[in-house]
From TrEMBL:
Organism of origin: Jiangella mangrovi
Pfam families in the cross-refs: AMP-binding, AMP-binding_C
Source organism phylogeny: Bacteria, Bacillati, Actinomycetota, Actinomycetes, Jiangellales
One GO term of the biological process aspect: fatty acid metabolic process
Domain spans labelled AMP-binding enzyme C-terminal: 335-406
Name of the protein: Acyl-CoA synthetase (AMP-forming)/AMP-acid ligase II
Amino acid sequence: MPVFREVMAHAADHPHRVAVRCGDAVRTYAQLAAGAEAARPDVKPGALVPLTGDDPLDLLTGLLAADGAGAVPLVCDPAWRPEHRRAMLGALPATVDAAAAHDLAWAGFTSGSTGRPRVVVRSRSSWTGSFAATDRLTWISADDTVLVPGSLSWSLTAFGAAHALAAGATVLLTGDWSVPALRAAAPSADVAHLVPHRLATVLEAAGGRGRLRTAMVGGAALGTALRDRAAASGVGVVAYYGATELSFVAVDPDGTGLRPFDGVEIELRAGEVWVRSPWLAHGYLGDGGPLRRDDDGWATVGDLASTDGEGPLVLRGRGDGAVLTGGATVVPEDVEAVLTTVPGVDGVVVIGLPHAGLGEVVAAVVQGSEVTRATLEAVARHRLAPAQRPRRWLAVDELPRTSAGKPARALIATGVVDGALPTRPLP
């Protein structure tokens, strides 16, 4: 069922209940439903409807309007440069697969990639069908206010908003992950959808033993100290692992470790996580990505994990070298494609380095004696999305390579972490 219909039903039953807040702006369910009805696009079912504004309330209204029309809304991150957005949208088809268009209604970017847009499209049921299981984890009711910070272009944020609206709750939007926005919003929240590096900020702003009771935390590994700190404040933390392509995979509601989410089967194949569930996405629009399937309904994005028999799932990173930083997925090849165009760069490998708050940070290992950090940072600011920009810049005399002449990515990453690869700060 489209979330638009749920909003219309709440508008009919409780028209004056607050549906969404963003700063000082407020929309009741009646106002949100009327706005979505008025904005419903005149398109055929399955048409792709890009949403490019910068007002979170307008974007949420447009998302519901497209959903109500049977179209596929695609929210673009307001932080993207216009030329970056045009390049991504220009590579996409106007409609999704017509054979499945009747139930395809949600699309989102897996990362802020440059030149190779990766847009995942999913059915309504792959989200709405998991709402009941999410209800049991969060106990969200119509009396709750649910904080969903960040851009609605993120799967995490879009899902949180859709689930809260379906429950008849009040959605509290911020539009970004900035500390001032979170501090202003947190004291009003009963439930929050967060990434680990912002949990501490919300706990501080909410106050000890305050209104906040549950934090849904995904996008990166959650440390024990943060969970303990939340518990001391009376906040239960539900940590989960998933991917835009796979939706929820595993969940840890009590600190005992990740176990399969309701309806999900998990299988490790040579350490690679394969998933079979009703929540899988339909696939990609435009260029493909890491999602792979087999003939028996199993799918993977290349994440690695281990388990001890029937014990919890322990994540080990991504086999393709993707960097998971603060809830965003950065594909190294996309960053490398930009940096290698800089004169003086003889080779570059992008890796993820461990970080206590963000999970990982993007690092660039550069070969080239005639290039400076300032030059590379200027190019990164101009051509890369914020999550893609390297936080650390390292220089090497020569990149280790495979027998085929390609940079040995795994060897480089391991060598930087354990100090076996001689590096120095890029001047």
